[in-house]
Amino acid sequence: MTAPEVRIPRALAAPAPGWTTSADVIVVGSGIAGLTCALRLRERVDRVLLVTKTVLDEGSTAWAQGGIAAALHPEDSPEEHLEDTLVAGVGLCDREAVEALVTEGPRRVRELVALGAEFDLDAEGEIKLTREGGHHRDRIAHAGGDATGREISRALIAALHRVIDDPGIEVVEHALVVDLLQEGDVPDGSGEGEPGTGAPVVGVTLHVIGEGQLDGVGAAYARAVVLATGGLGQIYTSTTNPPVATGDGMAAALRAGARVTDLEFIQFHPTVLFLGEGSTGQQPLISEAVRGEGAFLVDASGRRIMEGRHELADLAPRDVVARAILETMREQGTDHVFLDARHLGADFLEERFPSIVASCRSLGFDPATDLLPVAPAQHYASGGIETDLHGRTSLPGLYACGECSCTGVHGANRLASNSLLEGLVFASRIASDIPARIAAGELPEVVVPAVPAHAGGEAGEGALLDSSQRLTVQRTMTAGSGPVRSAGSTTETAAELARLAALPPSTAAPGPRTWETTNLLHLGQVLTELARRREETRGGHVRSDFPDRDDAHWLRRQSVVVARDRSLTATERSMP
Ligand code: SIN
């Protein structure tokens, strides 16, 4: 069987925009990256429009348990953080991006504290630091024990509420980004310009569940659009990501012709509570910080899984631990292993990990007395919309930050707790770059057309996949492009996704669930194509037919671009 050619439409079928709005900058997403960017930009440009798919604190940030990594301890250094990040990334990190991350990180975390984020403190009143996989030092700041993301989200939303009456910032909740508007998209739908081939981005089409003026599909125009829309975890049957993680921003950028990179590198978190084979959707995460405090992995006979496999044993980089668990499960014909935290004691566990203990107990497991059944589940997309060091994508006017972006800091495998830091650092960089470029005349004011355009210049012709097919997409992706892949599995997955893509469009009515499902399909097709091409095992990409890392052929990053004719061009770049 040969893999079918991948074709991606330029836009989703959607009703013609019924309203318009405009701003200097549109920020899409309200996790750490989106909120940081919007809050900083509002001090530097006249008008920021912040839109989010559901409500402000619904995204992945609020679910982050472990923490935020930064060289905050006097004995630690950005150089050591850099080294650990590069090792975890297995040769594919962009060194300059990592340098920016680790050197600017400590200052950005302290700014977060100044803004109101309350991290856990030690007896001297300094930020308490712990360790997670791949780190050679204690450098993970945490809050509420294991509720770091929730506290960061709370602090940023509180800061937003302090300025919410400011006319310079408008927040629209329940606003799903459908597609990007580009120069050349014209109101009559004839698509005279060159969207999908690098045309500047001038706004987004949005579906808003609102009242009055902003309701249904509309067109929002701006000099610059910042995508901070998070991950794509819902592409798999089980994930630690919340239900909103359907890759909407990534998919919209892909359709518009932005360069998307490293998408085959998907991080599967080693310790996700195993709730049974049929359990789908968001699953309970058991933070790596639990192992950081001394818990360890065992098989059913009590044998320690990580001993002798890596010098850091249970705290080896996440891909190494996930792979060891998968190997054990395969050898022993089981669907989970166990995490043993019993020796840490009830008092310590309840104080240090209150949310995890409560979540486990509510599901019938007590970490103080029971072995916890765990198995790897999707956790993080290391790749995404490629950006430079300023967060600029390959499309003029389009920026990306946070999980939907690919700054190059994660390479083939993100180092634990580097994601909140990445969102913080690169959102701040974007918030400096956009005003500077506006001042330099590089991001001109956008003329809002009297009749709003269709994204892609097309009158809503992009085929849709009905939301009833979502589980089929998830199962197909998990089976063939999941934690372990092969030439056969990715080819079969590609064929099934192509079949879904070719289903008669009439079966699917435009609407949020359908657009999300179609986004998962488009990203699944691209991810599968890149996973099929990469004939080696590295980081978050595991091939059963090529079980070793192959630096001679694959010390390279892969990117894709969708052309105007809907074809996909994949390119490879050697690492410098
Ligand atoms: C965890 O707490 O294990 C997750 C932290 C992360 O994904 O970086």
Characterise the protein shown here.
This protein is of the alpha/beta class and 576 residues long. The protein has two domains: 20-265 and 380-439, 3-Layer(bba) Sandwich (FAD/NAD(P)-binding domain); 266-379, Succinate dehydrogenase/fumarate reductase flavoprotein, catalytic domain (Flavocytochrome C3, Chain A, domain 1, Alpha-Beta Complex). It has helices at residues 32-41, 78-88, 95-115, 148-162, 248-256, 288-292, 318-332, 346-352, 354-362, 418-439, 470-481, 487-501, 512-533, 551-554; strands spanning 20-28, 48-51, 68-69, 129-130, 140-141, 169-172, 175-182, 201-208, 216-227, 238-239, 260-261, 266-273, 281-282, 296-298, 337-340, 372-381, 384-386, 398-400, 405-406, 556-562, 568-574. Strands 1, 2, 6, 7, 8, 9 and 18 form a seven-stranded mixed β-sheet that branches. A five-stranded mixed β-sheet has the order 19-17-11-20-21. It has a four-stranded antiparallel β-sheet with strand order 12-16-15-14, covered by helices on one side. Helix 11 (470-481) runs antiparallel to helix 12 (487-501). The longest helix is centred in the C-terminal third of the chain and has 22 residues, at 418-439. The site of succinic acid has 8 residues, from helix 6.
